[in-house]
Design goal:
With about 425 residues, the chain is an alpha+beta fold. Helices cover about 40% and strands about 20% of the residues. It contains 13 helices and 19 strands.
């Protein structure tokens, strides 16, 4: 969310920057609402001051035995005028808030021009994609052949875009989550959290999922209580500090959690409908950092390294790209995508997005710290996947497949699994 005054003061520069991400800022409408809001505030203040003077005159005149009829009539008129001004103020304030909530974050100048994934700029490649002496299978065929993935029974339970893992597959999911959590808590300094999976509308608004992305959320409720299933642990982790002032000595905060994630994937039908790439329910280890705004750039680079460490532990080939301004998420100002190699598609596919939100989310959620002068100021927030379990599992199955249908797993998983190999029939082997 933006400060209206800051956008107006930026003027043409704000229009230019938002245009880079395909958003047309109606500066005139914003200025009009801000002006009407300010005028209403001034008018209400003037009327309240007059009301206070009239009330004082009523008391003084009454003490002196004078006629207070006209004064009392004026006092009633002022109350009615104040109520009318306040009603108008509330309406204008709501319109201004709705407009500000709909305006995306200003993209960083470091984000390249463009609006599609083809406009992303590659930063680096790590690892060598495996070369097979046979035609590599995709993760769905591998998982179903070994019996560790069952999409048919998942569809029977819940419809399309769900998966069941069993046996070594379920153990592999659990091992991946534990490995990632161990990396982040023991090596990268994050504090693990267990958080609610159902949150309020205000919480969703704080991190930018609402109001823009309501159609992509699963919503539930009992009686008059409305709750949303989280699309990512970013939502509860960031909002843990909503409406708080964090002591500067406690920054940066580094938070992580392993949670299920729920997304309707509205508008993406026909894309990646087969397999684990795009599902309604998946699990993910999330990283969130809350920092002083001056440190956001350095913290972003650190977080990218933390996500990369997960892939390096698994020996998976990947690359890092900087997303184009027009392809950057609504709340982010700069995003790095980490893309893992998917042999069956002969290409890299996104497995993690790591984003710097600046003060955008902090303003919406009212998360602050104190500056050197002791006065409250907004923090900066960042988050990234570290990593999604389903997409990691898909990449792992495809990069680790053998010609005989078995899977040879990374050594890093052995302590968590107790085996290094999954036979073609799904049997774990040492």
């Amino acid at each position: 969310m933006h400060d209206a005054r800051a956008l107006i003061d930026m003027g043409a520069e704000a229009v230019r920057r938002l245009a880079r991400r395909g958003y047309s800022l109606d500066l005139a409408a914003l200025e009009d609402l801000q002006s009407r809001r300010n005028q209403n505030i001034r008018s209400a203040d003037e009327l309240r001051a007059e009301s206070k003077r009239v009330a004082s005159e009523v008391q003084q005149t009454a003490r002196q035995g004078g006629d207070i009829t006209k004064l009392k009539e004026r006092a009633r008129e002022l109350k009615d005028e104040i109520r009318a001004i306040e009603a108008g103020q509330e309406q204008v304030q709501e319109q201004l808030r709705d407009l500000l909530l709909s305006i995306p974050n200003l993209p960083s100048d470091a984000a390249p021009d463009g609006s599609t994934d083809e406009d992303a700029v590659e930063v680096r490649r790590v690892g060598t994609p495996p070369v097979f002496s046979f035609e590599p299978k995709d993760h769905v065929d591998i998982g179903e052949a070994t019996g560790i993935l069952d999409f048919a029974r998942a569809t029977k339970l819940s419809g399309p875009r769900f998966a069941v893992t069993r046996g070594a597959g379920a153990a592999l999911e659990r091992a991946l989550a534990t490995l990632f959590l161990d990396l982040h808590t023991r090596r990268h300094g994050y504090v693990e959290h267990a958080v609610p999976y159902l949150v309020t509308r205000r919480t969703m608004t704080g991190t930018g999922q609402l109001p823009k992305f309501e159609e992509d959320l699963f919503r539930t409720g009992v009686a008059d209580r409305e709750l949303f299933l989280i699309p990512t642990a970013e939502v509860p982790l960031t909002n843990l500090y909503a409406d708080e002032i964090i002591p500067p000595a406690e920054l940066p905060l580094a938070l992580t959690a392993h949670t299920p994630c729920f997304r309707s994937e509205a508008g993406s039908y026909g894309r990646d409908t087969r397999g684990l790439i795009r599902q309604h329910q998946f699990s993910k280890v999330e990283m969130v950092r809350i920092v002083d705004p001056e440190q956001a750039g350095a913290e972003l680079e650190s977080m990218v390294g933390h996500a990369e460490a997960c892939l390096r532990e698994l020996g998976l080939a990947y690359r890092v790209v900087t997303l184009a301004a027009g392809d950057t998420g609504f709340s982010a100002r700069l995003t790095y995508d980490i893309e893992v190699w998917i042999p069956s598609q002969n290409t890299y596919r996104e497995i993690s997005s790591v984003s710097d939100f600046g003060t955008f989310q902090a303003r919406r959620a009212n998360i602050r710290t104190r500056g050197e002068d002791g006065k409250p100021k907004l923090v900066a927030t960042l988050n990234g996947s570290g990593l999604p379990i389903g997409r990691t599992l898909a990449a792992l199955l495809e990069q680790c497949q053998q010609e005989d249908g078995s899977l040879v797993l990374p050594e890093a998983l052995a302590p968590y699994l107790g085996f290094r190999r999954i036979a073609a029939d799904g049997t774990p082997e040492a």
